[in-house]
Design brief:
The structure holds 2 protein chains of 2 kinds. Helix content of chain A is 0%, strand content 58%. Chain A is mainly β. By secondary structure, chain B is mainly beta. Classes of the chains: A mainly beta, B mainly beta.
Chain lengths: 112, 112
């Protein structure tokens, strides 16, 4: 069964600090992996998309990594801002499928 | 251009009533998804439309749920005889392909 597990479930950090969110998946065959940011009361917004051959992809202060061998991904947030407070969702699409598998998300709270 | 819009943003209904949720996708997007997001849970796939093809309804939790997409554009998700366990945020997403999904803000449904 395709599964996406995220950790930690929740995280509280101080403004300006860095943090790393983890995503482990069992989806096979692998097509791509996305990280989404979901603000409270809003729909998810795509941050990065990574295919099998990509190890690292950055989007401003967000950097995603992918290890297709160990089926792990991470999202690193640098110099966190209050606006980074949100839920971060890891989504994996299987090759030949159009139905993605979603993680439950990591709830990040950035305190001033 | 305009993003994906959903209406209503909030819906409170009594158990046993029918509800209709509307999604206006981005113009020209052929793919349209409906998801359900319950508190503390990952997004749950409900139904997928692609162009004029028959929709994939494999995610609909019961026969009380149905959806249609008229003219390849606007979609309506209907829940008949609502139950308290139907309470959730219903998200719609559209895209040009299965890789890129743009989400609407969601409809928060509360069944009393």
């Amino acid at each position: 069964k395709n599964q996406v597990e995220q950790s930690p479930q929740s995280l509280i950090i101080l403004e300006g600090k860095n943090c790393t969110l983890q995503c482990n998946y069992t989806v096979s065959p692998f097509s791509n992996l996305r990280w989404y940011k979901q603000d409270t009361g809003r729909g998810p917004v795509s941050l990065t998309i990574m295919t099998f051959s990509e190890n690292t992809k950055s989007n401003g202060r967000y950097t995603a990594t992918l290890d297709a061998d160990t089926k792990q991904s991470s999202l690193h947030i640098t110099a966190s801002q209050l606006s980074d407070s949100a839920s971060y969702i890891c989504v994996v699409l299987s090759g030949g499928s159009y139905i993605p598998t979603f993680g439950r998300g990591t709830s990040l709270i950035v305190h001033p | 251009g305009a993003g994906v819009s959903q209406s209503p943003s909030n819906k409170v209904t009594e158990k046993g009533k029918d509800v209709e949720l509307r999604c206006d996708p981005i113009s020209g997007h052929t793919a349209l998804y409906w998801y359900r997001q319950s508190l503390g849970q990952g997004l749950e796939f409900l139904i997928y439309f692609q162009g004029n093809s028959a929709p994939d309804k494999s995610g609909l939790p019961s026969d009380r749920f149905s959806a249609e997409r008229t003219g390849g554009s606007v979609s309506t998700l209907t829940i008949q005889r609502t139950q308290q366990e139907d309470s959730a945020v219903y998200l719609c997403a559209s895209g040009q392909s299965t890789d890129t999904q743009y989400f609407g803000p969601g409809t928060r449904l509360t069944v009393l």
